[in-house]
Amino acid sequence: MKKLVDCFAKVVEAFLVILMALMVLVVFLATVGRYSQLFAIPWSEEFARYCMVAIVYLGLMLASLQERHFIVELVPLLFRKSPRIILGVSVVVTILLDVFAVFMARYGWDIVSKMLTQGKLSPMLKLPLGGVYALIPIGIVLMAVFYTYRTVQKIRTAGDAPQDEKEAAG
C-alpha cells in the first residue's frame, strides 16, 4: 500500500511541477509581450488562474501526505511531552477533516454536475467550467484520504512501539 501511495504522490507532484512551470512560462511570456508591445496572450490570465487552482487543491493532498499542514506543525510544539495527546488531536482532526470532505464532495459534485449539464465554458480557453470546478472537491477528498492514511499509519506505529518495548524487556 505504501508503494502505491508513494507512486501516486510522485505522479501528482510531477504533474503539479509541470503545471507550475507552464504557468510561470505563460505569465512571463505574456508580460514580456505586453510590455514590449510585440504580441499578446489574451488567455494567459485565465490559464494562470486555473493552474493555480489545480496546484492548490491537488497540492492539499501532498501537504497532508507529507504532514505539512498547520495543525501538524502546531500540535507537537504545544504538547511535546505527551504523544498520546498529539495522537488524540490527530485523530479528532482527521475525523473532522473527513466529515468536511464528505460535505465538500457531496455539494461540490452537485455544483460540478450542474455546470457540466449546462455546458458552461471558460471565456478564453473554452474549457468546461465544471471540470475546473471539479478540482476543488477532488482535491479536498484526496487530502482527506491521504490525511486519514497518514493518521492510520501513526496509530499503527504508536501501537507497535509499546509491544517492542515489552519484548525487549521480557
TrEMBL record:
Molecular function GO labels: transmembrane transporter activity
GO cellular component: plasma membrane
InterPro entries: DctQ, TRAP_DctQ
Keyword Nucleotide-binding on entry: no
Residue ranges constituting the Tripartite ATP-independent periplasmic transporters DctQ component domain according to the UniProt record: 23-156
Keyword Zinc-finger applies: no
Organism of derivation: Selenomonas timonae
Protein name: TRAP transporter small permease
Location(s) in or outside the cell: Cell inner membrane
